[in-house]
Amino acid sequence: MGGAEPGGGATVTWRELWADTARAVGDRVRARWLCEVASGADDGDDFLAGLDDRATERMVHHLDAMLARLRGGEPLQYVLGRWGFRRLDLMVDARVLIPRPETELVVEVALDLVASMGAPLRIVDLGTGSGAIGLALATELPRDAAEVWLTDVSEDALDVARANLAGTGRAGTGVRLARGWWFDALPADLAGTFDLVVGNPPYVPDGDARVETVVREWEPHGALYAGPDGLDHLATILAGAPRWLRPGGCLVVEIGAGQGAAVAALADSAGLVDVVVHPDLTGHDRVVQAKRAAT
Predict the structure, then answer these.
(1) What is the count of structural domains for the chain?
(2) Residue 37 and residue 227: Cα distance in Å, rounded?
(3) pLDDT, tens digit, 9 for 90 and up, residues 190-211
(4) Contact present, 16 and 53 (Cβ < 8 Å)
(5) Which has more confidence, 12 or 254?
(6) Would you call 126 helix, strand, or coil by DSSP?
(7) What residues make up the domain containing 287?
(8) Do 57 and 165 fall into the same domain?
(9) For strand 194-199 and strand 121-126, is the pairing parallel, antiparallel, or unpaired?
(10) Three-state SS annotation for 69-80
(11) Is the distance from CB of 91 to CB of 81 less than 8 angstroms?
(12) Does 208 lie in the same domain as 120?
């Protein structure tokens, strides 16, 4: 894109670079996000206040590199290196799934359920990835109201979650991280003590042609695919939930469109009760909640 002289002499303002970038990507909003990251602005207000500042050579090179990655097909979220989820600004890269608006429904349902539970709470976010669900709960619940466990089988994913935990400050003091396969990550002595189990496990059927090309080519397959019907991991979680939940404790998991009846049947087979399938804003099955019987 150019804009700086050799040796670091700046010749272009961020106002001009924003306009140039908008023409390149066809969208002023996305262009602003790219320019904010390249400029090192702390937030959007900081960027807007410095629109007439001149970019350094390093900043222009950073912007050019991000645009090259976009042209190569990489998702915008990975190019930016961060993405919003509820109140959080999460670090994201190709080690984890990109947080999506539909997953926010898991947090909403979970918060509704724990509102009637007494503190302190014990919560686990299984297969946490970037930490989105668990960290959202940790930061939106009253301080010191919950011990939140973030688990993942991927050490790479836990490294991302750990970085995002560091960004939560004092709100994250009750968060614990553990590596392992679903419930196997947890200390055995915590069985039967969890008030809430949450998660967004893989639920896409293997080879599903409906998966967008950009998702198939860039996002981690281990966090997407789950056997021929997409239910392999959900079945494992539902079968294990009664052992880990306290009596009256709740499970909230994200599911794929059209999986509501099958997942509800799995919950029933596991002995869970009060099963509810929640639709997303498009009317598709998206979240299942269930409960361990109180007695």
Answers:
(1) 2
(2) 38
(3) 999 999 999 999 999 999 989 9
(4) no
(5) 254
(6) strand
(7) 95-291
(8) no
(9) parallel
(10) HHHCCCCHHHHH
(11) yes
(12) yes
